[in-house]
Amino acid sequence: MTKTLLTSAVLACLAVSHVTAFAAQRPNILFLFADDWGRYGQIYSQIEGGGGINDVVRTPSFDRLARQGVLFRNAHVNAPSCTPCRSALLSGQYFWRTGRGAILQGAVWDSTIPAYPLLLQEAGYHIGKTYKVWSPGTPADAPYGGAKFAYEKAGRRFNQFSQTATRLVAEGKSIEQAKRELYDEATGNFQAFLADRRADQPFCYWFGPTNVHRKWIKGSGKALWGLEPDDLKGKMPPYLPDVHEVREDLVDYFGEILAFDAAIGLLLDEVKRIGELGNTLVVISGDHGAPGFPHGKCNLYDFGTGVCLAIAGPGVRGGRVVDDFVNLTDLAPTFLEMGGVAVPEVMTGRSLWPVLKSDREGLVDPQRTFVVTGRERHVEMARAGHLPYPQRAIRTADHLLIINFKPDRYPLGDPYNLDGSNPPTTEELTETTFVTLPDEDAGPTKAWLVNRRDDPQWKPLFDLAYGKRPREELYDLKQDPHQVHNVAADPAYAPILAELERRLMDELQRTGDPRLVDDGRFFETPPMAGPLPKDVPQPKRKQ
Q1: Phi, psi angle pair for 160, to nearest 5°
Q2: What does the angle CA 156 – CA 255 – CA 258 come to, to the nearest 5 degrees?
Q3: 145, 255, 259, 366: which has the fewest C-beta neighbours closer than 10 Å?
Q4: What is the pTM of this model?
């Protein structure tokens, strides 16, 4: 994809010489951020030659925006878990620098940490959000100013898109009528936000629906969107069973992505209707990979940390695909620079403006050759074993190195033990399609694999997903793009492993990662580990 995809007139409209030229106009910022949406968009299939699961997903609104702006091929979250990912994004810092914002269940926001929305609000921006920004956590949505900036009076049903649409169809509405009710809700909330601002006041709006997060209605991908599960046959990555049940689970997930994509188009139409699309920076992304699938959410493989990212708007030289490695922590300084606000020195993210205003494709910034990711505690560790599973990783163009600091622990909790004392019975595992196991979202794919954990055909995939892992995992991405063959013990890779571990540890040391101090004591003791503290709601075990 090249600049020829855009007319010269559009390019002239989008491009300016430098971000400082925006000072007089104070551009708007529209951030469209889907829960649990990884790197699944049809345009990625097109630029990568097809042949994978992105062949099936349809994202016309995202694809259109990506062609007008910059599409990032190597965008990653800092942590593949909702709250720590969002703590990093909002603060512009690695998640391990955000105190109790570094975990999901038990998170508490430190109000002394600068957050880009509140900095923009102090600088005169009209800020607002709809649906999820920072949760679960206490206080709710604290880095966005809490509920006082919420615009949700039109409703919150979009968050259960397939559930609501299926019910409305059962009540006699057509599929399109059911969808329209939910689309009108999303548009109505955005219109209320726009109506609240003063004349000539720039806005910063966060649209964060949770419909892409489990759970969705089984069969809804086909029923609501016409997606055929078996169109994925032969396209599944090697860590997912290529069977109908798993293919159906994946296209149901894709259906929720299609709903989010439809909302993207509606909100962009609304900005165009009020005549401000040319002065609005539009950023579209998600907070990590697919939930309840092996290698996905809560894992440091690409299926867990890789996300879509497209940016278009004033000052952005569009029609480009770039290979620069981007961490979503980079968005906070990018937004602040565009808004004319000084970037706090404490932020570890780096503004993307040098990349966005360039006219080059491929690798634009020679310093952006790697990204660092990590994880501590997600959900179930709060009650099953009471311990985190600490990981840090460095991803380059050619390799992925993951360090598992506690290889004696199970990466997603003990797969044979639900609550730390009693394993699930055979009846519990076979009678449900929504098996709950420690620290990974439940769903039909996980249930299918767990129920076949002793089948010789599927046990290797079960062990790959839920078994214990060595301290070092090294993947040669040229030979093994799906990251299933660990070559860390191969002497031929020893120099590469040593160099990547040095670079990773240098970055962790430079940014003050507590995991490297006193054997990770900060993360290994309450409230970061152990039973949930009394200052946060206790989760209910799913039945």
Answers
A1: -120, 65
A2: 75
A3: 366
A4: 0.91
